[in-house]
Amino acid sequence: MTPLSWHDWVPYLEDRGYRVIAPAWPRMDRPIEELRADPSLVGGLGITEITDHHAELISRLDTAPIIMGHSVGGLVTQLLLDRGLGAAGVAIHPGQTKGVFRVPPAQLRSALPAIGNPFNLNRGVPLTPGQFHWGFANALSEEDSREAWSAYHVPAPARPLFQAALANLNPRAVTRVDYSRADRAPLLFVAGDADRTVPASVVRENHRRYKSGIAHYMEFPGRSHFTVGETGWEEVVGRALEWAVAHSAGTRSGS
């Protein structure tokens, strides 16, 4: 997805006095029609490039931000905090870091359109409306899911999924973090028990890997991977914001 997927969250947070930055990933700061027409635009984009891009944006801010990221963005949130950035982090249904071994069948099926073909490594891969509904927006009706697919879906780079899937076989995996780092900013994991792309059991294991610092876990019933846009999103952002402010000395700059 593109920053359009945050269209409800941004005004919600701005109405509460926060400056909100919702940057696109590198090479994805284009109209969705252009990205859909040419999936090669995002081909080969990897986790390190995405993380470096956000780290550079954060370095320009006057105060340390609350960092919120969803899915691969939730993995990037963990990597940014591991670099010493941010006043607090919220990893929403996050892709897992190196050391998380659980891969439920539903997660594998959701990832197959990308990682099922090794030649996709350097490609941008779209989902069909049916694939999107099964793996991403399964808490919605088929009609509502198709509307969400039409409004927000773009081809995604497959490389981050390969990097996450093979991380435990790679001693130099780009998804590794220091789970014992005590000076990391507080980190909240948010999961949904209906998510098939990143099932709650995977998020729970990711959370348990953190051995020091503040790392909390929050799970919402009935929420799919499309939690940021499906009905009830206000509770998710509201509770995430409340937690983040309570654990970040009330910073007023957000990302």
TrEMBL record:
Designated name of the protein: Alpha/beta hydrolase
Keyword list, A-Z: Hydrolase
Domain of life of the native organism: Bacteria
Pfam families named among the record's database cross-references: Abhydrolase_6 (PF12697)
GO MF, one annotated term: hydrolase activity
Source species: Streptomyces abyssalis
Domain AB hydrolase-1, first and last residues per copy: 3-237
